[in-house]
Amino acid sequence: xxxxxxxxxxxxxxxxxxxxxxxxxxxxxxxxxxxxxxxxxxxxxxxxxxxxxxxxxxxxxxxxxxxxxxxxxxxxxxxxxxxxxxxxxxxxxxxxxxxxxxxxxxxxxxxxxxxxxxxxxxxxxxxxxxxxxxxxxxxxxxxxxxxxxxxxxxxxxxxxxxxxxxxxxxxxxxxxxxxxxxxxxxxxxxxxxxxxxxxxxxxxxxxxxxxxxxxxxxxxxxxxxxxxxxxxxxxxxxxxxxxxxxxxxxxxxxx
Amino acid sequence: xxxxxxxxxxxxxxxxxxxxxxxxxxxxxxxxxxxxxxxxxxxxxxxxxxxxxxxxxxxxxxxxxxxxxxxxxxxxxxxxxxxxxxxxxxxxxxxxxxxxxxxxxxxxxxxxxxxxxxxxxxxxxxxxxxxxxxxxxxxxxxxxxxxxxxxxxxxxxxxxxxxxxxxxxxxxxxxxxxxxxxxxxxxxxxxxxxxxxxxxxxxxxxxxxxxxxxxxxxxxxxxxxxxxxxxxxxxxxxxxxxxxxxxxxxxxxxx
Lengths: 255, 255
Prior knowledge:
The structure is a homodimer.
Chain A: E1 15-22, H1 24-27, H2 36-46, E2 48-56, H3 60-73, E3 76-80, H4 91-98, E4 103-105, H5 107-117, H6 123-126, E5 130-132, E6 136-138, E7 147-150, E8 153-156, H7 160-174, E9 181-187, H8 191-204, E10 209-214, E11 223-229, H9 232-245, E12 253-254
Helix pairs in contact in A: 2-7, 3-4, 8-9
């Protein structure tokens, strides 16, 4: 089932999500994965933390095993890829297998496909009407072509443009509680020198996510420090506590 | 141990690899993952198939669990990220835990760090001398700064520029047997119409990987079909068999 939107308590643990990215073309390096970062950012705006991403080939049994595990461990699961009509599109079959249900033709999708293709509609096109039995077809006013959802698992397409077109339907349905906020501090110090300062802040603010990211050859800074959480006041406190520890001339900037 | 390079038999199963991508910044969408496709392509040139990618946060126990599983299931494991000196760099600890070994200071790395930083060298910098006990330090003539390897697990940095600088050391050490070859056929047909043609080719060439990738709004083609394998003759046969099934006016091009 869809996880209920939790009360607007920024100190409560966030809802969690996983992504299952499907496609031989990604594992062979022919295509660069382009949907995970977009998904992650959209989820953070809702207060949902993406906690795990798994990339597997176009194989029914591997997909089924991952869907079963990830949909059970996290509040939401998003699959990306494998939803077209050809032999290598096996996500619907994998999801059905994971949930122990059959693959059936959706009369609604079959009707839409026949309307769309008209006389040109073939058995190949109608493969796109197959869904796990019991799935919901999710639409919004803006996005009329349905997205398949089974329980907490959303089946999104791998093509980046279509992934981006469909994601808002899931976003609207899942709903926001308390969005994550993120602050960034840029310094010309290196990570070795920053370490004791960061340790002090991490010890004082265990509830704030603190990250340190060296930049390779940027004239304006050397290390970017990030402070993340859903409690904006605590995030700012941690960021300010860190800035107060910096030597003269630092930071370069704060965002 | 490193898997031995298999005999140059293109019909033998390829050596396999997995990647473990580590970093909160990727799971929050602050940074786009940029190393997997580069790794995948380098491995295919060696005849090694990347079969699984897992992305996890900067947490020792999660990293340890994945390293244990992935290093056991695949011939090679590559980790990306979490190898710097700050609190969120916990890959070395995770790998040590996975293999049941201690984290120790490498005298060789400590010496190199002291030489590099001179009077400025701090305890923070020396964190980068920590390795799983029993690890090898891999170098090449071109890449003098060592890369840590423990058994079949290579610890690569997350910063894309440094990942690319270090990858050749692993590539040289792993060695090539029979590289994958890939052919692409571009058509203006849609996947629904292509399906029966592809099914016929897939049935005749079970040993060739056949992929179908629709393109969103490209004036020159609509669907790209790919034919992949380590037996170039079979790959070309499959590609030619597919092209022979196409109607007049197709394909748009072959690569």
